[in-house]
Design brief:
The chain is an alpha+beta fold. The chain is built from 2 helices and 5 strands. It starts with a helix and ends in an 8-residue tail after the last helix. Strands 1, 2, 3, 4 and 5 form a 5-stranded antiparallel sheet that branches.
Amino acid sequence: MSIDPKLLEILACPQDKGPLLYFEDESSLYNDRLQRRYRIDGSIPVMLIDEAEDVSVDEHQRLMAKAAEDGVEPNFTN
């Protein structure tokens, strides 16, 4: 299930307040600056710092390659 586009426009990382990459097919939002992933339960993003997943260097590289391949861009610009 996807996130409402209007909600996606205003979502920011709760830790650094920056934009996120939305991977709809993986039900996650990703902060590439902090290498943290936030899961999406149904259509509800879980934006709690304590619930975020720190990803490995290999996973970060996979996600960045996937973003480039799929045309995934940050949900807003600073």
